[in-house]
Amino acid sequence: MATTDDGYLRFFPYDEPYDHQREAMATIYEALDEGRDVLFEGACGTGKTLASLVPALEHARETNKTVVITTNVHQQMRQFVEDARAITDHERLRAVVFRGKGSMCHIDVDYEECQALRDTTRELVDVETDIAELEQREGELLEAGQSGSSEAMEARNAVVDELRTLQEDLEDLETERSTCDHYYRNLTVDTTDFYAWLYDDVRTPDDVYEYAGDRGMCGYELLKEGMDGVDLVVCNYHHLLDPTIREQFFRWLGRDPEDVVAVFDEAHNVESAARDHARRTLTENTLDQALDELETSEDARAESAANVLETFRDALVETYEDSFGFGDREAVDDHWEDVTVANDDRKDDLTLAFFQHYTGPGFHEEVDRALDLGRELDAAYEEQFKEGELDTRKECQTLQAAAFLSSWLAESDEAGQYPVVSVRRDESTDEVYGRAELYTCIPEQVTSDLFEDLHAAILMSATVRPFDVTEDVVGLDDPVTMAYGNQFSEDRRRTYAVDGPALFSSARDDPETQRTIARTLEDVIRFTPGNTLVFCPSYSEAKRYHDMVAVSGTRYLDEPGKQARDLREAFTDDDGGVLFTSLWGTLGEGVSYDGDDARSVVVLGVPYPHLDDRMEAVQDAYATAFGDEDDDEAGWRYAVEIPTVRKTRQALGRVVRSPDDFGARILLDQRYTERAEMEMRDYAVRGSFPPEERREMVDIGPEKLKFALLNFYQDMDAYDGPPPKP
User: Fold this and answer.
1) With helix as H, strand as E and coil as C, how does 78-129 read?
2) Distinct helix (H) and strand (E) counts, the chain
3) How big is the CA angle at 106 (ends 167 and 395), to the nearest 5 degrees?
4) Alpha-carbon separation of residue 678 from 681, 683, 684 (angstroms)
5) Closest-CA residue to 268 (of 11, 542, 520, 42)
6) pLDDT tens digits, 567-594
7) Which of 353, 534, 648, 676 registers the highest number of CB atoms within 10 A of its CB?
């Protein structure tokens, strides 16, 4: 461990940080001292996590705060655990790795049912505790009464009466109400050994689940109790980005938000993750269940609640049915497919259909009444479950439907909100059904309150630039910004911009274009001494070139909806293989390919995302929020081009992960070249890369790429035998 005048280096677990890490730590430490957020970009494999975590932990210790480090990438979660363990080997640290209830419950119940079981179990233990205390008191009073104290005997009689009542309550709880045996043991056994074990190292949720399960306890609840006042918590994005979960999370920490320093890894993903957590949906099935629920209710409000919900349900069905052309209904599969309902000059089609068909008193008042009824029904279900009248904790569909409808009517035409209707086919019934959704276009509407409430946040990534765009979309106010590029020697990497076909979507089916791309890929694979990664604009393009290229090594194909871990392991165990995948899949970031696991990486085309109605809505929202008269391309830049270039840069970062590593990165499309900046300016993307990355790009023709690779890998002395012949 380093021992210097820089106090925060007490948490640095290795001999000495690199110079770039030391500089970053000093900047972050100073920013945290001022309560300022930090946007921090560092190239893949250059120690960003420790550079962020070390000063954050020192600042938190000095000011009695907790550090929360969070990611949405499983591989990074494992890396955080390793880093935290390395730190605790040198400096005492209480750390908890937290995971949601869904994967830690030993009896497999949903959140609402778990909460009801938890409340009843605690009530049971409270009654048992009261009984034990009263029994002890009754014995003491009996002894005093036998010694001649009439006051003691009178007090004992009162205690006996109270005991009788509590024992009846206990009998009811034990025989008629549902409890959780695992949580019961949490409350009734000594947990000292568990917490000594927990804090002795950095335990994973799987470790906790196994430890608790072996002892018949609930690991999830033990973790929640163990988070109070710890130094470091490792968790998933949703614990901070979901407003409801966030409130509970801070309560479990025993901290107000201003006493938390949050470190967001892979921070370029915060934008899309926040958008996902903000979306609200209501399916046709939930509306049907709510109407069934109301039909059995004897409450006087049930009829009017049913009227307003049934009208919305019928409007939903009418909206998606009217959208179908010839053969469209038959083509619907088991994936949600959007139906366009938004209008530029009036309310959306679903709301208009609801207005057209609704009859009755003011619908806002009726929706409010439905909400009130839903809350009462939900409370009744919880009480019935606690009392043992229901075997499972029933969810109130009326409450869900009314809450969504209230939000839809109030917000569907607000700036940044995009109303959507989607359809899918139920595989079990083969019936088509619909869903209404409020889609939040601008993440800042979700995240700005969080960043304002926290003491400070560090957002780090290898691709967080341009800083001004990140500031805008997530709602940061005057953060400290810093970036260090790839700290490894330029001699050990090459970045080639291949002046081949520009792979516009309209050109991808051209046979000559396909032959040029396939031949170029074959050259890359043949002249790479190790594995090759090929990132394509889509899974269909990945399959196209997987099938077209003719190479001696094994060809691997990543397919949508299939587990990629086994594929990746098979690929990295190979030597001379090639893996084709989509840039928008799971293998483009948060995954390290060391050494021969991947020597060359190819990004094929400029892999823009599918430009559907949602993406256009995001573009429009960004253009309105961040554009001006002199910047009519703000929507495209913020919503499409910058996220695509970030994805591309992430893919390039899969190789050359350490000072001793080496590799080649190939951008296979004319739009990456310097020539495109002059000759096809409207389509060129080179200018969206950071300056130091642009300087490293070598423009080259597709026919010359194999010679460049041969020379580079010969310089690296990478070929085990004689190099391939050009």
Assistant:
1) HHHHHHHHHHHCCCCCCEEECCCHHHCCCCCCCHHHHHHHHHHHHHHHHHHH
2) 29, 18
3) 75
4) 6, 10, 8
5) 42
6) 999 999 999 999 999 998 888 776 778 8
7) 534
Residues 6+ apart with CB under 8 A from 190: none
The continuous run of DSSP H or E covering 536 comes out as strand 532-536
Determine which helix (DSSP H) or strand (DSSP E) holds 417, and give its type and residue range. Answer: strand 417-425
Which residues are within 8 A (CB) of 232 and not within 5 positions of it... i.e. 6 or more apart?
Answer: 53, 57, 66, 67, 68, 69, 84, 93, 94, 95, 96
| SS3 of residue 37 by DSSP | coil
In terms of DSSP H, where are the helices of 147-269? 150-176, 181-188, 192-200, 205-214, 219-226, 238-241, 243-253
How many CB atoms are closer than 10 A to CB 306? 20
Is there a cis peptide before residue 690, judged by omega within 30 degrees of 0? no
CA distance 47 to 453: 28
Q: How far is CA 163 from CA 157, 172, 177, 332, in A?
A: 10, 14, 20, 64
User: 């009519």: which residue's tokens?
Assistant: 632
Amino acid making up residue 200: D
Which contiguous run of DSSP H or E holds residue 458? strand 456-461
Residue keyed to tokens 């607000």: 414
CA distance 583 to 479: 30
Beta strand spans in 300-358 (E): 337-339
Starting from the edge strand earliest in sequence, which strands make up the sheet with 480-484, in order?
A: 95-97, 232-236, 66-71, 260-264, 456-461, 38-42, 480-484
Size of the chain, expressed as the number of residues it contains: 726
* Residue whose entry in the numeric block shows the structure tokens 């109303």: 419
Quote the tokens at residue 75.
């591989």
Taking each helix axis from N to C end, the angle separating 349-357 and 397-411, rounded to the nearest 10 degrees, works out to 110
Q: Rounded CA gap, 95 and 67, in Å? A: 9
What is d(CA 474, CA 278) in angstroms, rounded to the nearest whole number? Answer: 13
Distance CA 393, CA 35 (A): 44
Q: Tens digits of per-residue pLDDT, 383-420?
A: 887 777 776 778 899 999 999 999 999 999 888 899 99
Coil, strand or helix at 68: strand
Backbone angles phi, psi at 172, to 5 degrees: -65, -45
The residue with tokens 């002395």 is 717
Rounded Cα gap, residues 158 and 165, in angstroms: 11
Bridge-based pairing of strands 432-440 and 555-557 is unpaired
Report yes or no: 80 and 232 within 8 Å, Cβ to Cβ: no
- What was the pLDDT predicted at 386? 73
Q: Could you give the CA distance from residue 397 to residue 399 in angstroms, rounded to a whole number? A: 5
Tell me, rounded to whole angstroms, the distance of Cα 496 from its chain centroid. Answer: 33
Burial, 163: exposed, middle or buried (Cβ in 10 Å; 0-12, 13-18, 19+)?
middle
**Could you say which DSSP state residue 637 is in?**
I
| 397: three-class secondary structure by DSSP | helix
Side chain identity, residue 187: L
Residue 129 and residue 151: Cα distance in Å, rounded? 25
Tell me whether strands 480-484 and 38-42 are parallel, antiparallel or unpaired: parallel
Question: In this predicted model, what pLDDT tens digit does every residue of 98-153 receive, in sequence order?
Answer: 998 888 888 888 777 888 888 888 888 888 888 888 878 878 777 777 777 777 77
Nearest to 178 by CA among 113, 103, 130: 113
